[in-house]
Design brief:
alpha/beta, 7 strands, binds NADP nicotinamide-adenine-dinucleotide phosphate
Length: 245
Amino acid sequence: MKQALITGSSRGIGRSIALELARRGYDLAVHYARNREAALAVAGEAEKLGAGKVAVIEADLSKREAATELVENAARELGDLSVLINNAGITRDGLLIRMKDNDWDAVIETNLSAVFRLTRAAVKRMMKARRGRIVNVASVVGLMGNPGQANYVAAKAGLIGFTKTIAKEYGGRGITANAVAPGFIESDMTAALPVKVQQEYLSAIPAGRFGKPEEVAQLVAFLASDAAAYINGQTIAIDGGLYPH
Ligand code: NAP
């Protein structure tokens, strides 16, 4: 299983996943929405770390048709597709009573509906090969809820249920689907939060620190590997003990 598409791998957690899979010798499709320069830099680093073929592909996953095209482009450029990491995600935070329809729709479309389309396109290919790995990057808030994130939490909780269903539908075809649920991880997404909110999270994390994107990447790379063949339909929290369940 050597060809991987990692959505949202120009920055943050997705970038670290791409670099970890590069170290493990995968062919990679590095995907971005707007930051082409950043994606090209990740591709350059990946090549130095030992990746095979590296493709850099643009797709705005808030647009309906983009997801299927992205999978087809990745499979064409890499020759096949055996691993799909659904990592790209956005936030549009706000309390429920102030949340605009646009904020709800954008988050559900990008964080959940695009994953449905990406996974559908990828699983069709994986079924023929009778092997495949899907890893969905959810969030611990999809398990525990979070004020100000009704749209994001609904998408991430939906992603967890979606993962369990894909596992049951295709577990007999050599395909596994698992989710990871990161807690508070150092990235652009969390750096944008007010310092007060960051401090509140920190005080609730038994580990006493935020996580690093590289730590999430190690877990994702394991779930994508042959070694994880008997793990299917799981959601694994990686949150320093914030929300044991
Ligand atoms: P990030 O640093 O904000 O990076 C987001 C990535 O998604 C970028 O590669 C970005 O591409 C891409 N993206 C943004 N809008 C897109 C769109 N419309 N279409 C396609 N791609 C788009 O995010 P992150 O913190 O690494 O988070 C990665 C994943 O982990 C997300 O699913 C997030 O929900 C989840 N997560 C993060 C944390 C955390 O603490 N950071 C915790 C739990 C879960 P461009 O660079 O081109 O914009």
